[in-house]
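Q: Can I borrow your eye for a moment on a structure tokenisation matter? Would you mind producing a protein record, from residues through to fold? Write it directly below this note and I will take it from there.
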Amino acid sequence: MEKLIFDAHAHYDDEKFNDDRDDVIASLPEKGVFAIVNNGVDIETSLKSIELAEKYPHFYAAVGVHPESVPDMDISKADEYILEIEKLLSHKKVVAIGETGLDYYWDIPKPEQHIIFEKQLILSNDTKIPIIIHDREAHGDVMEYLKKYRPFGLLHCYSGSVEMLREVFRYGRMSISLGGTVTFKNARVPVEVAKEVPIDRLLLETDAPYLAPVPMRGKRCDSSLIIHTAKRIAEIRGMDVNDLLKYTKENACRLYGIDY
């Protein structure tokens, strides 16, 4: 089987894979998966992402601090966390900083979120390594940072409007990734976004083990299920699914600096 699936954002270090992680990961290439970028959410999971990337040739790592990790941090030591992330960037299988960003869904102190997010934006610009941004119910503030720093990277599991999408492309060198939500029954805005995004800025993701697409919704997600998301987006855009997979694979390789 031709390997056309590039999962731009996943979490295979998650406990939901504890029982069969190696079997699942090893089986993915024979299901058409070319590559996966596994994202850290703190130092520990960033190291786990690197460990997986060292073990599997089709795995790559992103290292960073997620806003949900902020409550477990001593924010006065933020510079120390960033220094640890910076050290990990020299690893040959590390292709991005992330995931980081802002999350206003949970009750997490916003000032602390902003501190650690902004420092990772600066690190990304300084090192010229792409950044993977999480934006949950924080569109306005995320856009302010995109305008200020004009970063190069990925807005993962994009949840904004078409109008915001146009602003994203105006104020940065960002791409977006879409996942299983575009297949959901009432997915009006994701469908509009899937139709509007320029093909050279579109990536596909799972956010595995979460957000499995229809017809697997509610079950544990893995990278092979991207085919369902790809079929739906291809239908929305009126194009062949294999062509869509080729474009999104090339886009991901270009973003992450991976040969294809």
About this structure: The chain has one domain: 5-256. The radius of gyration is 17 Å. The beta strands are 5-10, 33-39, 59-63, 94-103, 131-136, 152-155, 173-178, 202-204.
